[in-house]
């Protein structure tokens, strides 16, 4: 074995020492000269090899890198694959974090689609439209009842009873929906029955007492008390989802009115409400004598509605109380000890919604009260507008469900806050436009049928009601998203502004006042809703 061969194998000892060599002599080993070209070629070959390994790893981890939120998620995935800092160095990176950042930065974002989930806001078109019809059907009783209203006291009493009923109904409906949301139908039935009983024992006697104190006629008192009872009972039935049965309960009264109007050439009876003009003397409608069979039919409908409300709350027996712990900790089931289902806390929670119903009624009846005080209001406009808006509430509910379902889809598909905000504002604009179109169509159909005068004052009055209807729709959306406490002060300011304008600026017509105030209310609510409802937290 030669010296040169030994130098090539430094870790191998020589087999023997040549005999001619002295014991104290050391063989001389000459180190080979360095070969720089060979070393450079070796280094050049290793870099492409490492780059190729990174690209292969990138392809293998493509799904994880495309859907990762940040490089740390890629780091966790690499470590799960057994790639640590030592292995990362083989890919030309000092540690696994640097390797993860390289993979993350070089892969386009392609988040995995979220798992399909059913939206909780499933619209039932026929049910929503039927609700709108049910909101408008009692208006027929309201129309044929105008001959019974003689003088300001009768008309004010009817408005007063409606405001009380709307307030009580809104509060009762809120508590019923809360218990139904907890999945406790027994407690909901008991709350609704308590609300119905309290309404009948409080609202109806208060209405009767107010009528007696104000000198209203006996027929006007009976009509106002009957409408109170119907609104309270109908609320209970609709919260329980009994719209079809409520429709059949109303058929006797509605059918009698339709037969009566058809027999009189579809001429409305005369009356003093809403400035309705007197019809041609000598006709059956001009006499103001609505046949007794019509009122008997409405009495049957009222009794059927009350019986339906009692039947819907038949589960109001032993109640299983449900309570939420910590707001989001879950719902616990416990059997209640004997005691009232409605606590002071429940009443306090329902008060804002009751006030919402009262303020809504006040805004709706502003022009009506102005007409009763002698201010110029086009005849019939308030009646037509209120009935049209009542019918539009069914469409509004349908559109609201579609809007909430659209927002649910945006929540699960958008990955950026800015994109969600833009899409949420667009969804709100589309929903508002749809409602406005439906309200315009209803008013455009009802106005010619009611033979409203084609004047600028009529157009301003109807325009004010349309703006008010759009504001109501936005308020319903905000209320559904837990923002009722913002709507209440705005409604209060709007109603106060209308009253102040009516008292201090007498030369302005009520229709003009309502158009200005309702327009300002709509602008404010649109701006506020567009800002607040673009937040993810508003839809939790």
Helix tally equals: 20
- Count the E strands: 2
Share of residues in helices:
55-70%
One letter per element, helices H and strands E, the order comes to HHHHHHHHHHHHHEEHHHHHHH
Our Rg estimate from Cα atoms comes to: 39 Å
Form type: elongated
Sheet-strand content, in percent, reads under 5%
Provide the spatial order of strands within the biggest beta sheet: 1-2
* Terminal Cα span: 85 Å
Mean pLDDT: 80
- The low-pLDDT segments are 1-49, 275-287, 318-338
Secondary-structure content class: mainly alpha
Q: What about the largest sheet?
A: 2 strands, antiparallel
Detailed description of the structure:
It is a single chain. This protein has 20 helices and 2 strands. A hairpin with a 6-residue loop joins strand 1 and strand 2. The longest helix has 33 residues. The chain is elongated. Helix 7 crosses helix 12, helix 9 runs antiparallel to helix 10 and helix 19 packs antiparallel against helix 20. The N terminus is likely disordered. It has a two-stranded antiparallel sheet with strand order 1-2. It starts with a helix and ends in an 8-residue tail after the last helix. By secondary structure, it is mostly helical.
List the helices and strands and how they pair.
Elements: H1 3-8, H2 36-60, H3 62-67, H4 71-80, H5 85-89, H6 96-105, H7 125-136, H8 138-144, H9 152-181, H10 185-214, H11 218-239, H12 243-263, H13 292-312, E1 320-324, E2 331-335, H14 344-364, H15 366-372, H16 381-413, H17 417-449, H18 456-480, H19 484-504, H20 510-532
Antiparallel strand pairs: 1-2
């Amino acid at each position: 074995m030669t010296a040169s061969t030994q130098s090539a194998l430094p870790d191998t000892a020589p087999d023997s020492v040549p005999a001619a060599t002295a014991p104290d002599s050391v063989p001389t080993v000459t180190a080979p000269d360095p070969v720089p070209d060979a070393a450079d070629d070796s280094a050049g070959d290793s870099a492409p090899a490492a780059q190729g390994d990174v690209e292969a790893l990138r392809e293998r981890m493509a799904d994880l890198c495309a859907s990762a939120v940040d490089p740390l998620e890629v780091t966790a995935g690499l470590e799960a694959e057994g790639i640590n800092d030592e292995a990362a160095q083989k890919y030309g990176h000092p540690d696994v974090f640097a390797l993860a950042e390289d993979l993350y930065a070089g892969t386009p974002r392609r988040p995995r689609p979220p798992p399909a989930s059913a939206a909780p806001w499933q619209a039932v078109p026929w049910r929503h439209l039927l609700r709108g019809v049910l909101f408008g059907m009692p208006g027929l009783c309201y129309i044929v009842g105008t001959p019974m209203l003689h003088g300001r006291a009768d008309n004010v009493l009817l408005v007063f009873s409606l405001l009380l009923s709307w307030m009580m109904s809104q509060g009762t409906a809120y508590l019923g929906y809360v218990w139904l949301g907890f999945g406790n139908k027994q407690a909901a039935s008991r709350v609704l029955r308590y609300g119905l009983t309290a309404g009948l024992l409080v609202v109806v006697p208060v209405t009767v007492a107010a009528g007696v104190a104000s000198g209203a006629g006996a027929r006007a008192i009976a009509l106002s008390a009957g409408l109170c009872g119907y609104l309270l009972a109908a609320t209970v039935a609709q919260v329980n989802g009994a719209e079809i049965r409520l429709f059949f309960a109303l058929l006797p009264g509605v059918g009698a009115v339709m037969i009566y109007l058809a027999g009189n050439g579809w001429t409305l009876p005369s009356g003093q409400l809403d400035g309705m003009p007197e019809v041609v003397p000598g006709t059956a409608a001009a006499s103001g004598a609505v046949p007794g069979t019509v009122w008997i039919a409405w009495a049957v409908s009222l009794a059927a509605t009350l019986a339906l409300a009692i039947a819907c709350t038949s589960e109001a027996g032993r109640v299983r109380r449900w309570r939420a712990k910590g707001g989001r900790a879950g719902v616990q089931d416990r059997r209640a000890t004997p005691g009232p289902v409605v606590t002071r806390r429940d009443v306090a929670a329902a008060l804002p919604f009751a006030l919402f119903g009262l303020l809504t009624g006040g805004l709706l009846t502003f022009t009506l009260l102005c007409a009763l005080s002698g201010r110029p209001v086009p005849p019939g406009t308030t009646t037509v507008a209120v009935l049209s808006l009542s019918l539009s509430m069914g469409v509004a509910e349908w559109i609201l469900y579609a809007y909430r379902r659209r927002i649910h889809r945006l929540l699960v598909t958008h990955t950026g806050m800015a994109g969600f905000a833009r899409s949420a504002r667009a969804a709100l604009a589309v929903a508002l436009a749809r409602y406005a179109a439906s309200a315009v169509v209803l008013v455009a159909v009802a106005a010619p049928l009611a033979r409203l005068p084609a004047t600028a004052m009529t157009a301003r009055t109807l325009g004010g009601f349309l703006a008010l209807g759009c504001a109501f729709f936005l308020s319903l959306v905000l209320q559904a998203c837990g923002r009722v406490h913002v709507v209440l002060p705005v409604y209060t300011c709007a109603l106060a502004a209308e009253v102040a304008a009516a008292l201090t600026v007498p030369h302005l017509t009520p229709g003009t006042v309502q158009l200005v105030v309702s327009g300002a209310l709509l602008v404010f609510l649109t701006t506020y809703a567009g800002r607040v409802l673009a937040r993810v937290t508003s839809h939790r």
